[in-house]
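Worked example (supplementary).
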Amino acid sequence: MAEFPSVDWFHAVRSVFNEHDEYHGAGGGACDTRFGVVVEDDVYALTMAGLRCVDAVSISADELPQLDFYLLMSHGDWRVMLENIRDNGRAALDQTLNTIDLDREEGLAHSAAEDQYKQDLFFRYNQTLQHFFDASSRVETSFSDSD
Amino acid sequence: MTVKIKPRPEGRTRRMGESEDVEIPEPQYAWMGKSHQWGTRVKAGDKGLTLGSLNVGHYAEVPEFWEDQTRMPRGSVAGSAVVPPIGYSVRHKSGLWADCAGDLYEEAIQRRWVPTTDLDWSSVEPLDDAVERAMCQLCTELIQCANVEMESIASWQEELSYGFHEVKQFLATVTFDDARHMDAFRKRALANGGGLGVESKGILNRMILESRGGWTETVAVMFLQRGLLTQTIYKHGVGFAHNAAEREMFSRSMQDKARHLTYAVEHLKYAVNHNEGQGPILNQVLTIGEGMLIAELKDPALRESLMILLAGSLEAAPSAGKAAFEGLMGDYLRQYAALTDWIGVSRDDGLPPDLARYLEA
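After joint prediction of all chains, the assembly is encoded as:
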């Protein structure tokens, strides 16, 4: 079992995502970006190259401007989304990255670099990013006690 | 009838078949050896042999102004024969360029999808009558928008200089994306006991089709104003989708639209930064487009169908649906304001009240 959030958890999801062709099919495909996942004080950088997620590391918040964009939610909101994915095998309509970004007043995707081109990558690669998190349904996950 | 070709000295001609009268020259291979940069050997990288990776040495020289008036591929040797000019109207790089065009072309090719087989049409099940009618009306309007974009780009292609081939190739993928969107939304409208609804007045569509002032101006109205609204509807469509087919249809279309918008934003920023006076022109074009959009929004078909879909029922449309529609417009206009700021043609103080009011939604 891998605990969210942790580098081990992202590596576990990365393995599932890379190994299953269903996550790379139509509308998905090649994706080249380095993006962040921010869970309160924990910050992770994920590197997507072609059809694979090639790296997941822990970084400091100071490094966020070096990323294309990052996804920011509270631990509780991440947990709701990931439990929804676990229960359904994929995100239900109100828990997709796109819908969460729309529904939250502060949004989900941000860019510390204030670069519109980088921010737009969230939507250009949206399907792949969704597939990545949907792959977590196949990873036995526990949650830290942050909430 | 026989064809006579001017006789040539013995040894430089040969006869064809049985005819004594037809002569063709011996091959001279004069074209061989004519190249600005022979011996080029681009290697595939991690991402394969991409369009952008071919821009090496002589082939990487993208001129500020494309002199040639034929269809000479960039980097080739101009033909010696006199070729009648085939006029391009967009010959300045600032009139169409975006640095990302080659990458966007690759992305469009790699991330393509097929509505026929990639959407789970078996997931479409009967809906409440009013909701089905609203979905079909929305599909009708989205088909119209995609068709207008496709036609507009196709009519502009011959005006865009071949020297900037990355842009032309990317735009070719946009027309294909548009065809795909027409395909997907038409299939949805006809797959669940409904049918196509009423034609939109298409006031903004008409402006796009008739816009001949410049490609940059067309990009501003077609991709930034209209395209961003379409993308915002797609984004919300993911939320109000009733089945897997609709969800995938909206989410994949949204992704396609994001590429179009990226080209638009990057090109408009490039044009403003490289073409003195472009900013005020764009501001004026956007002002006109905003007026057209306001007029178009008075047509109830799109607004009311969205209200029903966003609310989930006819009964909730006047209250929750209206609020949700205003929220959608707010999302659209906030993003519009952010993008125009980024491009350098801020609309913060120029938005007409009929649009600005949605910013508070």
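Two points are worth noting when inspecting this output. The longest helix of chain B spans residues 244-274. Chain B touches chain A at residues 46-47, 100, 106-107, 110-114, 118, 231, 235-236, 238-241, 247-248, 251-252, 254-255, 257-259, 261-262, 265-266, 331, 338-339, 342 (CB under 8 Å).
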